[in-house]
């Protein structure tokens, strides 16, 4: 009976280590070692367990474990994680391609499973081990409460100011040579992280740098912005990033030694124009080569110079459309205040206006 192999000492050891690591060691140490330990123990115990349930599918189970792990640890699995989290099944994983070395545990599982042989124990013991195994496999994918000490690290805030979902890949990972110079950077936040930003969404990543420490960015620092189809829209190196981040509340420009950074990504949404702010009579500024005067009210638009009939209009987002009897003209409102207006008309150049009266 293949289920008797659940008593294999190496399987039981991997199961115990998996539980101890996920529920105790990660909460205490929060470093890369605990993450790697989960992968090593889980990749041994998982295929070993299911091989006891389906002994005629041993090769298929181990092969499927490898394929699933490769997919799970890549950015391609994020839509599935988002789907599970949407329905309350809190699921978590970190994208770190160095985790692939743990696949050696799958080979070990296959080799040891084929050789292990044990006397059949009592049925309740087998069921107990099986129940603990399933619990351990499910628990290791659950998103744990973020450690309270996370606030002690520097962070980067991201805001998607566009109208489409974006994927943000943040490489804030120090190399082995860089870690040798400062071991405090060797923690669970020293990784390549992936964020999925919904339109208008906010997300934060924690860097491996403690607050108050003046440490340079990793040499491989890079932030890649991609759309929902995986097409790269923008890439930031350190120089571009520091130019693009917002200043803090004291209007001080962020530098490499700041305690946090805030980056807006995505094409900015057109600002909603409040129609009443544009009501009144407008005339092009004196320096403008092309003269134009118009009046706009709640129910009509009227070209004063050159003269025209009353026309209907529509303002949607920042685009104004004038409906003349035989044609329509559009323009993009670039700026509007109580006294100044700038419109880029699609049939003429950008014109600057001043308000003559409300």
* Whole-number tally of structural domains: 3
Order of helices and strands: HHHHHHEEHEEEEHEEEEEEEEE
How many β-strand runs? 15
Main sheet, how many strands, which sense, barrel? 8 strands, antiparallel
- Average pLDDT reading: 80
- The stretches of 5 or more residues where confidence is low (pLDDT under 50) are 143-149, 248-252
Percent range of helical residues:
25-40%
C-alpha geometry: elongated
Distance between the termini: 90 Å
Number of discrete helical segments: 8
Biggest sheet, spatial arrangement of strands = 10-9-8-15-14-13-12-11
Structural class: alpha+beta
User: Approximately what portion of the residues adopt beta-strand conformation?
Assistant: 25-35%
Rg from alpha-carbon coordinates = 30 Å
Task: Describe what this molecule looks like in 3D.
This protein has 358 residues and is of the alpha+beta class. The chain has three domains: 2-139, no CATH class; 148-265, Immunoglobulin-like; 275-357, Lipocalin, CATH 2.40.128.280. It is built from eight helices and 15 strands. The chain has helices spanning 9-29, 32-53, 58-72, 78-86, 104-115, 123-139, 176-181, 238-244; strands at residues 153-160, 166-171, 192-197, 202-210, 222-227, 232-236, 260-265, 280-284, 293-296, 301-305, 312-316, 319-323, 328-336, 340-345, 350-357. The strands form three sheets. Strands 10-9-8-15-14-13-12-11 form an eight-stranded antiparallel β-sheet, with no helix packed on it. Strand 13 and strand 14 (340-345) form a beta hairpin. Helix 2 (32-53) packs parallel to helix 5 (104-115). The protein is elongated, with a radius of gyration of 30 Å. The termini are far apart. Mean pLDDT is 80; it is low at 143-149 and 248-252.
């Amino acid at each position: 009976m293949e289920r008797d192999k659940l008593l294999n000492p190496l399987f039981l050891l991997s199961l115990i280590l998996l539980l101890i690591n996920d529920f105790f060691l990660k909460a205490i140490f929060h470093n890369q070692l605990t993450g790697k330990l989960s992968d090593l123990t889980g990749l041994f115990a998982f295929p070993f367990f299911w091989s006891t349930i389906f002994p005629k599918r041993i090769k298929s189970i181990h092969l499927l474990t490898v394929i699933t792990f490769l997919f799970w640890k890549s950015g391609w699995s994020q839509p599935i994680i988002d789907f599970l989290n949407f329905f309350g099944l809190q699921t978590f994983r970190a994208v770190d391609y160095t985790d692939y070395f743990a696949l050696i545990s799958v080979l070990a599982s296959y080799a040891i499973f084929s050789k292990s042989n044990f006397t059949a124990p009592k049925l309740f013991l087998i069921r107990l081990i099986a129940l603990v195994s399933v619990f351990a496999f499910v628990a290791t994918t659950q998103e744990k409460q973020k450690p309270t000490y996370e606030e002690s690290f520097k962070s980067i805030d991201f805001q998607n100011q566009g109208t489409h979902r974006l994927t943000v890949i943040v490489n804030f990972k120090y190399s082995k040579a860089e870690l040798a110079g400062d071991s405090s950077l060797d923690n669970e936040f020293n990784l390549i992280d992936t964020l999925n930003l919904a339109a208008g969404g906010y997300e934060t990543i924690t860097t491996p740098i403690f607050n108050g420490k003046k440490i340079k960015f990793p040499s491989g620092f890079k932030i890649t912005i991609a759309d929902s189809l995986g097409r790269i829209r923008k890439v930031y190196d350190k120089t571009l990033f520091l130019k693009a981040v917002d200043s803090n509340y004291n209007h001080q420009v962020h530098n490499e030694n700041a305690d946090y950074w805030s980056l807006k990504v995505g094409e900015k949404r057109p600002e909603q124009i409040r129609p009443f702010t544009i009501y009144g009579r407008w005339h092009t500024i004196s320096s403008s080569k092309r003269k134009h005067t118009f009046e706009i009210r709640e129910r009509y638009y009227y070209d004063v110079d050159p003269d025209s009939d009353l026309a209907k209009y529509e303002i949607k987002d920042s685009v104004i459309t004038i409906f003349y009897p035989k044609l329509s003209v559009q323009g993009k409102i670039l700026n509007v205040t109580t006294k100044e207006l700038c419109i880029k008309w699609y049939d003429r150049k950008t014109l600057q206006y001043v308000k003559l009266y409300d």
